[in-house]
Amino acid sequence: MRFVYQAFVLAFALLISPLAKADTLLLFDLSGAGSTYTFSLDSTPPIASAAAGFSFTLNGIDITIDDLFGVTSGLTFFNGARGGGVSLLNIPGGALDLTGPQLYSGSETTPSFGPGGPISLTDSAGAPFSLTITAAPTPEPGTLTLLATGAIATLGSIRRRRRTVAHT
């Protein structure tokens, strides 16, 4: 019976292991005109609104400005046929509109980002900006939960075996 149980646990672990996936968190570092703007997005972020063939908007993005303070802003990414680039909507001093290449792949309703850069962008006054996107893989909470559960089970098994040996 014990062998059947161990075989079942092993088979179950092998079946669900392909389902585990670490999401990729992308770090955006935008610098120019004497300031640096830093924010992070998932590689496939949930969009707030989209205009097919034109742009899509993300809301509630935390942006750090010059490593001093943060603001929560919306971001609009534009299609390459519409000038490309990105707009930071709610930052001190008004919106920052940058043009350049299209920064995402896929459609406006299902965009995805990947690492790259430096990417040259230009603001409305012609000032140059540089954008670098880097990837930082992060473990999912479910993966950490499975690891902790396995560690606790292993420790419990060792403890039980020591008790059994001590009583014999």
Automatic annotation (TrEMBL):
<protein>
    <submittedName>
        <fullName>Putative secreted protein with PEP-CTERM sorting signal</fullName>
    </submittedName>
</protein>
<dbReference type="Pfam" id="PF07589">
    <property type="entry name" value="PEP-CTERM"/>
</dbReference>
<keyword id="KW-0732">Signal</keyword>
<dbReference type="InterPro" id="IPR013424">
    <property type="entry name" value="Ice-binding_C"/>
</dbReference>
<feature type="domain" description="Ice-binding protein C-terminal">
    <location>
        <begin position="137"/>
        <end position="160"/>
    </location>
</feature>
<feature type="signal peptide">
    <location>
        <begin position="1"/>
        <end position="22"/>
    </location>
</feature>
